[in-house]
């Protein structure tokens, strides 16, 4: 090998005694010891492998037995078991209720229930947010942790998968995307790709370029593809 450092020839060639059992007294002596150790290493090393160990089969013990029968008097009654299942179901229900409440909160009852808005509703301080949906105020979204941001985004994207795009949905999707921290968690990565694909699907069904939904749909696709580096979803220039 080519010499990279100005190291003198080790003791094997010069006759100088280099003791590998003693600590080096200076950098030059350390380099000589390294040189000597390298010269003592064989050019080819062959591992010693026991063929018997390679032929050993790995076994996984899987028990097909059921639960052991409870001793006499230890087994709960069927009534008790049914009560526990009922209570557990009630505990799981708030998650489903929370999803529906978030949809109503963000989109408003008019959109959520698919009911026509009243004619007198206008953008003024007396706006009925319960009916038209609460805007994503900074005071609201700034308090959401990443788990909640991902959860609400998932709720709204699931709603979007089966329905058309509405302005309330676009405002909340934009705000939630702004709250996502990079690098993305795997579940968030999947969600934003789902959002971009659905936005492109709705866009293909628009009849004219003047449709007011075109710009927000393009924005969703652009942010997912360009900002969050999902470049395979990006629109190409005409």
From TrEMBL:
Cited function: The SMN complex catalyzes the assembly of small nuclear ribonucleoproteins (snRNPs), the building blocks of the spliceosome, and thereby plays an important role in the splicing of cellular pre-mRNAs.
Protein name: Gem-associated protein 2
Family: Belongs to the gemin-2 family.
Keyword Metal-binding: no
Top-rank taxon, per record: Eukaryota
Alphabetized InterPro entries for the sequence: GEMIN2, Gemin2/Brr1
Localisation per UniProt entry: Cytoplasm
Keyword Membrane: no
Pfam families reported in the protein's UniProt record: SIP1 (PF04938)
Species whose genome carries this gene: Oncorhynchus tshawytscha (Chinook salmon)
Assembly notes: Part of the core SMN complex.
Keywords, alphabetical: Cytoplasm, mRNA processing, mRNA splicing
Predominant cellular place of this UniProt entry's protein: cytoplasm
Cellular component, GO annotation: SMN complex; spliceosomal complex
GO BP terms in the entry: spliceosomal complex assembly; spliceosomal snRNP assembly
């Amino acid at each position: 090998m080519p010499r990279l450092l100005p190291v003198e020839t080790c003791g094997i060639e010069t006759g100088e005694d280099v003791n590998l059992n003693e600590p080096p007294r200076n950098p030059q002596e350390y380099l000589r010891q390294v040189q000597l150790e390298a010269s003592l290493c064989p050019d080819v090393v062959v591992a010693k492998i026991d063929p018997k160990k390679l032929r050993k089969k790995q076994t996984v013990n899987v028990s097909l037995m059921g639960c052991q029968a409870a001793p006499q008097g230890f087994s709960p009654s069927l009534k008790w078991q049914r009560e526990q299942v009922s209570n557990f179901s009630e505990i799981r229900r708030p998650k489903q209720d929370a999803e529906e409440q978030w949809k109503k909160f963000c989109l408003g009852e008019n959109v959520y229930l698919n009911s026509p808005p009243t004619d007198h509703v206008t953008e003024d301080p007396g706006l009925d947010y319960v009916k038209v949906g609460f805007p994503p105020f900074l005071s609201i979204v700034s308090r959401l942790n990443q788990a909640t941001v991902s959860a609400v985004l998932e709720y709204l994207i699931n709603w979007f998968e089966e329905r058309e795009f509405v302005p309330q949905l676009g405002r909340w999707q934009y705000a939630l995307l702004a709250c996502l921290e990079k690098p993305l968690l795997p579940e968030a990565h999947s969600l934003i790709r789902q959002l971009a694909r659905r936005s492109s699907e709705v866009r293909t069904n628009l009849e004219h370029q003047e449709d007011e939904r075109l710009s927000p749909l393009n924005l969703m696709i652009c942010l997912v593809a360009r900002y969050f580096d999902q470049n395979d979803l990006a629109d190409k220039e005409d």
